[in-house]
């Protein structure tokens, strides 16, 4: 029992600080300490500057040959495609409104990998494991964006734009994302064997330390209990899938197939991390303003309850010795 309690405490101590930062962001918004301009600005800084710096420095310093694992990439792509297909079919039977169906499926499978998974992996594992986690990002972002676009095209939104044109626009948009550009540049600099001046590499490293705190404050500022009430039933169903069922569907087969250590943690956190703010902005962009309210409800509830699924999930895997 002491070992079990110890693993829960270790996991809680690694994960809880990230949710405390989110709570501080929520408090600051709630009590008027910070307003919309602050949260808008800090989100832009996080995704245009801080996270690109984090990803670049991880790629620049990585042993890329050791970091890339085809089996890991193949598993999470195939498993997410399978989860996506199941959610698509099952949700279509119960959610008759096409737009709400698209919002539900998106909220039930998309994870907040960059904001929560990468920092948690950094807290639980060695620095040398970080490039492995970062190399997943381009594949995950590409897959998630194509899946989401497909949902809203099928739902009938923006039907004046052809499917081919929309897919082309999405792919161009993906490779214009600062985080993807940072990963690619980091890989190129690494492969070319170039060395940055010490002042440049240290500056980038210092900036990268602000990535998770800034983004988490932004997520906290976006949370609102009032938003959940507007679409409570849909939010509960999406959160049950995203926070409980999808993690089980990803983790159990991974364990049976022999994934261990940081590889298993990556897979687990793709499942366990809650819905990210991108689902809200994407829902509005692809589905219109009427998609915003249900997407916001799912976002808030998934994040509010994530601590109570991430900690037990990771602690159990650790207790079973699967992170060794």
Description:
By secondary structure, the chain is mainly alpha-helical. It has one domain (about 1-320): Na+/H+ antiporter like fold (Up-down Bundle), CATH 1.20.1530.20. About 80% of the residues lie in helices and about 0% in strands. The protein has helices at about 1-30, 35-60, 65, 70-95, 100-110, 115-125, 130-135, 135-155, 165-175, 180-190, 200-210, 210-220, 225-230, 230-255, 260-270, 280-285, 290-305, 305-320.
Key features?
single chain, 324 residues, 0% strand, Na+/H+ antiporter like fold, mainly alpha, 18 helices
Q: Could you tell me the mean pLDDT?
A: 89
Count of β-strands: 0
Overall morphology? globular
The CATH level-2 architecture is identified as Up-down Bundle
Q: Spans of 5+ residues with little confidence (pLDDT < 50)?
A: none
User: What number of structural domains do the residues give?
Assistant: 1
According to CATH, the fold-level topology is Na+/H+ antiporter like fold
Query: Helical stretch count?
Result: 18
Largest sheet: none
CATH class: Mainly Alpha
The separation of the N and C termini measures: 19 Å
Instruction: Kindly state the percentage of residues in helix.
Output: over 70%
Structural class: mainly alpha
Radius of gyration: 19 Å
Strand content: under 5%
Order of helices and strands: HHHHHHHHHHHHHHHHHH
């Amino acid at each position: 029992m002491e070992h079990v309690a110890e693993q829960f405490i270790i996991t809680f101590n690694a994960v809880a600080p990230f949710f405390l930062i989110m709570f501080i962001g929520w408090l600051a918004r709630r009590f008027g300490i910070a307003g919309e301009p602050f949260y808008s600005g800090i989100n832009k800084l996080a995704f245009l500057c801080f996270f690109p710096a984090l990803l670049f420095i991880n790629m620049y310093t990585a042993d890329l040959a050791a970091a890339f694992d085809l089996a890991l990439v193949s598993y999470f792509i195939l498993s997410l495609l399978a989860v996506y297909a199941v959610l698509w079919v099952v949700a279509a039977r119960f959610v008759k409104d096409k737009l709400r169906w698209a919002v539900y499926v998106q909220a039930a499978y998309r994870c907040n990998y960059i904001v929560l998974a990468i920092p948690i992996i950094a807290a639980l594992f060695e620095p040398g494991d970080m490039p492995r986690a970062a190399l997943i990002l381009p594949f995950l972002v590409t897959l998630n964006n194509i899946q989401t676009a497909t949902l809203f095209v099928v739902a009938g939104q923006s039907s004046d734009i052809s499917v081919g044109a929309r897919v082309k626009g999405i792919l161009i948009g993906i490779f214009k994302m600062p985080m993807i550009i940072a990963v690619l540049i980091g890989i190129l600099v690494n492969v070319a064997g170039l060395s940055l001046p010490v002042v440049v590499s240290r500056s980038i490293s210092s900036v990268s330390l602000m990535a998770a705190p800034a983004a988490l404050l932004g997520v906290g500022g976006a949370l609102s209990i009032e938003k959940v009430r507007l679409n409570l039933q849909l939010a509960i169903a999406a959160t049950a899938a995203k926070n409980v069922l999808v993690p089980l569907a990803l983790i159990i087969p991974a364990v049976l197939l022999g994934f261990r250590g940081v590889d298993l943690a990556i897979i687990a956190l793709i499942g366990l991390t809650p819905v990210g703010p991108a689902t809200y902005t994407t829902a509005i962009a692809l589905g219109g303003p009427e998609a915003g309210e249900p997407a916001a409800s799912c976002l808030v509830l998934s994040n509010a309850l994530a601590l109570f699924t991430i900690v037990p999930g990771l602690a159990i895997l650790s207790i079973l010795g699967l992170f060794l």
